[in-house]
Design a protein that fits this description.
The structure is a homodimer of 334-residue chains.
Chain A lengths: L9 E5 H14 L15 H9 L4 E4 L2 H9 L5 E4 L7 H8 L4 E5 L2 H10 L3 E5 L14 H10 L3 E6 L11 H22 L3 E4 L13 E2 L9 H4 L9 E10 L8 E3 L14 E2 L3 E6 L2 E5 L7 E5 L3 H5 L4 E6 L4 E7 L6
Parallel strand pairs in A: 1-15, 2-3, 3-4, 4-5, 5-6, 6-7, 7-8
Antiparallel strand pairs in A: 1-9, 9-10, 9-14, 10-13, 11-14, 12-13, 15-16
Helix pairs in contact in A: 6-7
């Protein structure tokens, strides 16, 4: 099957770029040094490719992602890098023989873990991002509470999410260091083998963490593309030009991929050689005028919420247009 | 089943608000005066409610929406208010006995309609929004071309999408009039019974169109909520507070609904009585601090791309928390 036969809009993955990104990361952070975050791609077939390059533990943001990876035979060592209260679903995965470690950052989430049959946790520590994570000085007490209730505490997590997207590499490095010094102190107080942190923007400069949770590196987006990282844009939304303006009106094109095909929180997606004007529900409007029927590859500004709109992604040889494999985006929803 | 038993995030529809919105619209634009646009809700169960209040023709933005409505027995008179090239799928619906009228705005889309077995079209006219639609002076020629190739031309469409969201009612009215004068002239030149236009923001002031394509009115969002329309917010994302900051850090809460639960092009969603700081993939961060386990209703800024992230919506009595029905969001994808 050829790209020209796809119903559009459709997610297309550039095989050469994907393979390059996988190889670059496996060389930089081999084996367990990387715990790939599946929230970026939500696809067990792609996770299997990451496992094939040596990374057998995965990071998840939702229980559904844990369940899906486990069902796909990838549940050897999952870290749910998030607080959850619906812990019976995790308990069920453990009973089925999978390994899932859950984040806790409060007495309430520890109680929920115990009630749901969770066995292993990490203490989630706030390292500067105002989101989840306990105050650093509370980490040891929470670990003690968790252990007193029978949980195994594998260590700490602290996500420097306020740092990973900074365009200045110097600033990224300095702020990453500051965050990881906080996390290292908490780790010393908590104990355990894991100090889990990091993302695509800090994968190489975060030398403190025992493992890096990068996810976006494998498919990339235009925001991460501005950071000078050695990863190439590997995912696009293929769209078809359905309308082109009459010369009397101006010179623009409309293709059939819009707000339901792209996460928009990082701004507009991009088309090489074109200027994107705006998106509406099912349209992307850009200049110059193209021919009706032309196909364009649109690069998302933010990969994670883009993928989550799509049912499947097509692995393709972009040079020939041949579609090599089609993978369901099977970790969507909750 | 009760709202407290739902896995979050979950789409919840306020039955009282929904029924009110349906009744208000059916009174203002009875029967065929409204052709509800299903792109806003993507749900055949909700379309059936609209049909039950008298609106039997529907507007669609995608072929999948046409196929889904037809499969649900709602294919009596569908208008695909968009240009498409994959017209064999429309031809198949016609062969199965459904009625689908398609927009054309170029010789290329007319040729595609003929090739795919489409029988009825409307000429899509640009009335000021730089998107699809032919130049007004080209409408008659395109209608003539379509008829010469055996298509039945039912009239014109012209969407005043640059007008429907204007907060000033005076400006909305003046610009709607300007757009509809363009469309009326094209309609006079093209002929046919349909002059299809309008949206939730112009449903009552657009007195020129033969039918109004409003969709958002039924569920609403915070953007349309600012226009002073007689429709109430009827859809929310139910989220659970999973983390609350230590007093030493500040005073915020984190709930489990983020960039994969809300279309973000209109800005941040809102929580009554709270100040939303930001969203990340699976989190919404807001003040003040709440208790872990609290549930919050989050109102989307833009309904259409919000709904498209969710597998189902739950119709509920918000006063009692009882879930009355659960509807699949079955018109997603392409």
């Amino acid at each position: 099957m050829h790209l020209s036969e796809l119903v559009t809009p459709a997610l297309v993955v550039d095989q050469a770029a994907l393979d390059g990104n996988l190889a670059t990361m496996a060389a930089a952070l081999p084996g367990a040094r990387l715990r790939p975050h599946v929230k970026a791609h939500k696809c067990t077939s792609l996770a299997a490719r990451q496992a094939a390059t040596g990374h057998h533990g995965f990071t998840c943001a939702t229980i559904r992602e844990c369940e899906g990876l486990a069902a796909a035979g990838l549940g050897e060592d999952l870290l749910l890098a998030n607080e959850v209260l619906d812990t019976r679903r995790i308990g069920a995965l453990l009973e089925a023989g999978h390994r899932v470690t859950v984040c806790v950052d409060s007495a309430a989430t520890i109680a929920a873990a115990v009630a749901g049959g969770v066995r292993e946790v990490v203490v989630d520590v706030n390292v500067g991002l105002p989101r989840c994570g306990c105050a650093p000085e509370d980490a040891a007490g929470l670990a003690e509470l968790a252990r007193s209730l029978g949980l195994s505490v594998r260590g700490v997590q602290g996500y420097e999410g306020h740092v990973v997207g900074l365009e200045s590499a110097v600033e990224r490095t300095e702020k990453c260091k500051a965050s990881m010094e906080i996390l290292a102190a908490a780790h010393a107080a908590v104990g355990g083998e894991l100090m889990s942190a990091g993302g695509t923007g800090t994968y190489v400069i975060n030398t403190w963490a025992s493992e890096i949770q990068a996810g976006s590196y494998v498919l990339m987006d235009t925001a991460y593309g501005r950071l000078g990282l050695p990863f190439r844009q590997a995912v696009y939304v293929l769209a078809t030009v359905i309308s082109t303006s009459a010369p009397a009106l101006g010179a623009w094109s409309v293709a059939d991929a819009g707000l339901k095909a792209f996460g928009m929180d990082h701004g507009l997606p991009e088309i090489a050689g074109s200027k994107v004007w705006y998106c509406s529900d099912e349209h992307i409007v850009f200049e110059p005028a193209r021919h009706v029927g032309d196909r364009v590859l649109v690069a998302p500004a933010h990969v994670d919420p883009t993928i989550a709109y799509h049912e499947r992604m097509h692995l393709a040889d972009l040079a020939s247009g041949e579609i090599l494999e089609t993978w369901p985006v099977d970790l969507r929803g909750w």
